[in-house]
Automatic annotation (TrEMBL):
GO terms for biological process: DNA-templated transcription. The keyword Nucleotidyltransferase applies. GO terms for molecular function: DNA binding; DNA-directed RNA polymerase activity; protein dimerization activity. Residues 12-84 form the DNA-directed RNA polymerase RBP11-like dimerisation domain. The keyword Transferase applies. It catalyses: RNA(n) + a ribonucleoside 5'-triphosphate = RNA(n+1) + diphosphate. Belongs to the archaeal Rpo11/eukaryotic RPB11/RPC19 RNA polymerase subunit family. Part of the RNA polymerase complex. The gene is rpo11. Its EC number is 2.7.7.6. This is DNA-directed RNA polymerase subunit Rpo11. Pfam families: RNA_pol_L_2. DNA-dependent RNA polymerase (RNAP) catalyzes the transcription of DNA into RNA using the four ribonucleoside triphosphates as substrates. Keywords: Cytoplasm, DNA-directed RNA polymerase, Nucleotidyltransferase, Transcription, Transferase.
Length: 91
C-alpha cells in the first residue's frame, strides 16, 4: 500500500490510500472518530472499482499526522493481540 498526501495543514489532512478499498478506509475513519482530538474523519471513494479512497481528517488543534500515526499503531497492536489469541487456540 502507498499513501499520497493530497492536502496537509496545521490541523487538517487528506491522504489517498492507494490500492486500498472501503475496508481499511472505514476502519481508519471509525477509529479516528472515536478519538476526542478528532473533529472530522471521513473518506470518499469516487468509483467503487476505479478509484482509491481519500481519507479526510480534521483535528481540534493537534497535528493530524501524529493522531493518524497513533491510531494506526494502536490498530496494529490490537490485531497483533488478536493474532496471538488465535495462535493460542490452535495449541
Amino acid at each position: 500500500m502507498e499513501i499520497d498526501v493530497k492536502k496537509k495543514n496545521k490541523n487538517e489532512m487528506e491522504i489517498e490510500l492507494i490500492g486500498e478499498d472501503h475496508t481499511l478506509a472505514n476502519l481508519l475513519k471509525e477509529e479516528l472518530l472515536s478519538d476526542s482530538r478528532v473533529q472530522i474523519a471521513s473518506y470518499n471513494k469516487e468509483h467503487p472499482e476505479l478509484s482509491n479512497p481519500v481519507l479526510h481528517v480534521k483535528t481540534k488543534k493537534e497535528d493530524p499526522k501524529e493522531v493518524i500515526d497513533e491510531i494506526t499503531e494502536d490498530l496494529i497492536k490490537s490485531y497483533e493481540n488478536l493474532n496471538q489469541e488465535f495462535k493460542e487456540i490452535n495449541k
